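Hi support team,

I submitted a single chain yesterday and got back a structure, but I'm not sure I'm reading the token output correctly. Could someone confirm the output below corresponds to the sequence I sent? I've pasted both exactly as they appear in my results page.

Thanks,
R.
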Amino acid sequence: MKFRTFIIGYVLVLAVFLFAKRHSDPSPQSSDFSNVVDLTRPGMGTVDQIPAGRLTAPLVVLDVRSNAKNNPGYQISVEDIADWEQIHGEIPPHAVVIAETGLRTNSNSSGYSLDAARFLVEGRGVIGLGIDAPSIESSASSAADKYMQSHGVYYLENVANLDAVPTSGSAVVIASAKLHNAKPRQ
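Hi R., thanks for writing in. Yes, this is the structure output for that exact sequence:
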């Protein structure tokens, strides 16, 4: 029994040592970082190359249901963001902002206005935008979509259960499908 305990302990120590050795050199020359792509430049990177650090972030839920209730083409505005910040404080840098419109039908054309997207990216440094609707793209927000893509901001669509998440103080972990060489939508 003591010999088996010794062997298990030895294997555990060896595993911890090998793990520590592999992860002790955070320099860019490390082979772990050979495939990292800077997604802040236009047209760079594929879905499978998004660094893990960009898939975990503070979560902000913009509840715009009252504004979007009778307007399926509602565009999230800088005013919506200002209203949120008056209550919760400034949106943290490197956050993912997801709008809860309450409009979950295919006829929904809600999205982010260009001014709102620009403010969130340049003014708050967000790394992702999302919406509870089936698509973040609409004819009215196509300029915002192009702007987001050109600045390496990913977007999330059809996000469910936002009413069960606090509007601030949460974190999100994005689990993107790892599709080899999958290009983001253009």
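A quick pointer for reading it: Helices lie at 2-22, 65-68, 78-88, 114-123, 142-150. Let us know if anything else looks off.

Best,
Support desk
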